[in-house]
Amino acid sequence: MNAFLLALAALLPSIGVGFLFYLAIRALVNADRTERAALAKLDAEERASAMQSEDQAAS
Q1: For 59, which DSSP code?
Q2: What distances in angstroms separate CA 32 from CA 6, 35, 41, one per listed residue?
Q3: pLDDT digit string (tens) for 11-42?
């Protein structure tokens, strides 16, 4: 049992760092996804505004 605890104690820092790395990468991916969605929404709004301007100019 003592050998198991020693092995666990040796692996615990690596597991902790791995978990922190996972959290950091997950935050980056979520931020990128949110930014892409916001940019797509902004582009769609600009396209709609441009189409309205063209329609009003053609009238």
Answers
A1: -
A2: 40, 5, 14
A3: 999 999 999 999 999 999 999 999 999 999 99
